[in-house]
Amino acid sequence: MSIEGIVVGLLGVVLGAAFCFAGFRYFLLLLPIWGLFVGFMVGAGATATLLGEGFLGSVLAIVVGIAVAIVFALLSYFYWWGAILVVAGSLGFGLAQWLVGLLGVSTDGFIVTVIAIVAGIALAVVAFIVNAPKYVAIILTAFAGAAWLVVGVALILGIVKTDDLANGAFAALYAQGALWIVIGAVAAAAGIIAQLQMTARWQQDVVATMEARKPF
């Protein structure tokens, strides 16, 4: 257990729980924050993997993480579909790394990182084509939030280390075994059910407010 792990773990628990159980309800508030958090983790993690170093092991990784975080946050704040694509892309990135690890392939290296990025873009495109933003948002926020919620708890307990996050929350969760995966799946299912029950009357207000934010 480390101070770094506790800090990242607490952020993961707070943001993960909020996203999992109230992602659509608090979309306007949570998305820019999620964009900052996930953008930094994706940018810094991908850089660390490409350079073959530990997570946050260099100034370059931190700079790239900050740059990606700012881009993700701006997209999430100003554009409704930008927000959906950020969540979908980050989820696809994490899932791809997890699946590669599931196949027994090392998740370190340039090729795997490229595969994860392509998968993130592909899931974002699918989310756009489906054109059901409310349900896309609920499903994606529930799964993404559940992964970070469970991994955040594991970080605080010292079971997961911050270096494990270079391959994404899903890969870190999978590495802990079936019990943690089941806990994450149950949390995601509970989040979807909770959001579906709460959000029927809020969809139009959320979309209208996001549309009004567009700077151009």
Detailed description of the structure:
The protein is mainly α. Helix content is 79%, strand content 0%. It has helices at 3-22, 27-51, 59-78, 80-102, 110-130, 133-156, 169-174, 178-198, 203-212. Helix 1 packs across helix 8, helix 2 (27-51) crosses helix 4 (80-102) and helix 6 (133-156) packs across helix 8 (178-198). The radius of gyration is 16 Å and the shape is globular. It starts with a helix and ends with a helix.
Topology:
Blueprint: H1 3-22, H2 27-51, H3 59-78, H4 80-102, H5 110-130, H6 133-156, H7 169-174, H8 178-198, H9 203-212
Helix pairs in contact: 1-2, 1-6, 1-8, 2-3, 2-4, 3-4, 4-5, 4-6, 6-8
Radius of gyration based on Cα positions:
16 Å
What is the β-strand count? 0
Low-confidence stretches: none
Structural class: mainly alpha
Residues in helices, as a percent range:
over 70%
Q: What's the number of structural domains?
A: 1
SSE series: HHHHHHHHH
Distance between the termini: 46 Å
**Helical region count?**
9
What spatial form do the alpha-carbon principal axes imply? globular
Query: What share of the residues does DSSP label as strand, in percent?
Result: under 5%
**Biggest β-sheet: count, sense, barrel?**
none
In short:
The chain is mainly α and 216 residues long. Helices cover 79% and strands 0% of the residues. It has helices at residues 3-22, 27-51, 59-78, 80-102, 110-130, 133-156, 169-174, 178-198, 203-212.
What attributes characterize this protein structure?
216 residues, mainly alpha, 0% strand
